[in-house]
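Consortium newsletter contribution from the modelling node. Members have asked for a concrete example of what our holo predictions look like. Here is one, prepared for the glutathione complex that several groups have been discussing at recent meetings.
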Amino acid sequence: MLKIWGRASAVNVQKAMWAVGETGLPHERIDVGGKFGGLDEPAYVAKNPNRRVPTLEDGELILYESGAIVRYLAAKYSPEELWSQDEKERALIDQWMEWTVSTLYPDFIALFWLVFRTPVADRDAKRIASVNAAANKAYQILEDHLADREYLVGDRFTAADIPAGMTLYRYLEMKEIDLPHLPNLRRWYAALCERPAYQTHIMLDFEELRGRLDF
Ligand SMILES: N[C@@H](CCC(=O)N[C@@H](CS)C(=O)NCC(=O)O)C(=O)O
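And here is the predicted structure:
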């Protein structure tokens, strides 16, 4: 059985768990990180020397980095659905996964920490406005791309949708930020919200993280 270490409220764990959920494989998620601690335990450090979550164990294989976990699960357990056997399509799936990690995610997560995880008294309005604008610019790229397609690649749900789609629940549901008009992005989000694995692993209340800068 697949084992995944990491608290359910961690976005990178959610990303991996969403992929696990899409495969339908039996699995066990073990709470570590955040209020559960355990990241400095020698047995955990031996699996993941970064002392971060998630970590996946599948038989002999121990794997960290949420993007690598999504790619592995897609390629091994969903080669025709989440992944693709067509080199060009696979390259596009990879492109959106890389783009998300390098361009979208840094501004998304900075914004989340500035407006949600930072206690109100310590919030920096100027910095929030600047990061909010940068994040909106990245989401606008998705908005434009989705103008004439249902999903990020090939008009079907693939692993390409997982890293960027994972951020949407917090980006769109966090009340504290300035959101532009994003009809195409919201249509895509509505489609993702229909997926049972999205509901189970992504649409989770994140109130426990409010004002918490300690993990
Ligand atoms: N690049 C890594 C980042 C992992 C990471 O930073 N995980 C965060 C949670 S999203 C973490 O371990 N935080 C410490 C904690 O939860 O205690 C990945 O994508 O897996």
